[in-house]
Design brief:
The protein is mainly alpha-helical. Helices cover 60% and strands 3% of the residues. The protein is built from 10 helices and 2 strands. It has a two-stranded antiparallel ribbon with strand order 1-2. The longest helix is centred in the N-terminal third of the chain and has 29 residues. The two termini are 20 Å apart.
């Protein structure tokens, strides 16, 4: 939900990632602990979260609303399918690295079918054929092989993360098919479109969260950490199903206005 939430602002790429890794490593050196042992950097994280909310309200949310107003639902579905298909390729690589061989095969098959028979991924033919999607990223792969989660961390612009997921961000950027798109102007345009498209799919969820009488920061932190923990695959889980494994992470289109 949030991971992708959170998705991944590869558009802003190396500088923020280097900064986040340095910050995470500094946190491991020992900072003042907060009330939640998973979140020793809570005062810092809350400030960054407030900054991110301000940036979202000023830029991302208006852009997402304009996108939904201007682009017909069928076209939005095509855009959603296209980026989901690209994500399937990196998911296939990660499920293979996790030794989830059946899931890796399904992800590769999805990518091949949708690329060649779905007009480059604009049509989700694989789902119609019953081929399941299994989302996976580098942070999950590190978790699969025993790398601990580390403290919760809110990254500037990028949003909720952990030390482990932050360290994995360069690998996710490298494995993103869009990182190989040339020229750079085309890559930037596609990255921006993906960011706006993902944010548009979260408009309803963010509206519910905004109107709820709760601490948004704590709710988001707890949901993110629970979600990420649920996504770490262990051999004992088998490959018949895993909590959250087939979740779209914001890929499914929501036609409501």
């Amino acid at each position: 939900m949030f991971r992708s939430a959170v998705p991944s602002f590869a558009l802003l790429a190396p500088w923020f990632r280097r900064f986040a890794v340095l910050l995470a490593l500094a946190a491991l050196g020992g900072c003042a602990t907060g009330p939640d042992p998973r979140d020793p950097l809570e005062p810092w994280n809350r400030r960054v979260s407030n900054f991110n909310e301000a940036a979202d309200s000023l830029v991302l949310k208006p852009a997402a609303i304009a996108y939904r107003e201007a682009v017909p639902p069928l076209a939005r579905t095509g855009v959603n399918n296209f980026f989901g298909n690209l994500a399937d390729a990196w998911s296939a690589a990660n499920t293979l690295l996790q030794l989830r061989l059946h899931h890796a095969a399904e992800n590769w098959l999805r990518f091949g079918v949708n690329t060649f028979f779905g007009l480059g991924g604009l049509l989700d033919v694989a789902t119609d054929l019953g081929i399941e999607r299994h989302r996976a990223d580098a942070g999950q792969t590190l978790g699969r092989w025993g790398v601990p989660t580390g403290p919760y961390l809110v990254l500037p612009i990028l949003g909720p993360s952990t030390v482990r997921d932050t360290v994995a961000l360069p690998a996710d950027y490298w494995g993103d098919p869009l990182s190989a798109v040339k020229p750079g102007s085309l890559q930037t345009g596609l990255q921006a479109l993906r960011i706006v498209e993902v944010r548009s799919n979260l408009l309803r969820a963010s509206s519910v969260l905004d109107n709820a009488a709760l601490d948004k920061y704590s709710f988001t932190r707890d949901a993110y950490l629970q979600r990420r923990q649920a996504l770490i695959w262990r051999p004992a889980d088998g490959e018949g199903g895993h909590e959250g494994d087939n979740a779209s992470d914001g890929d499914s289109e929501d036609f409501s206005r």
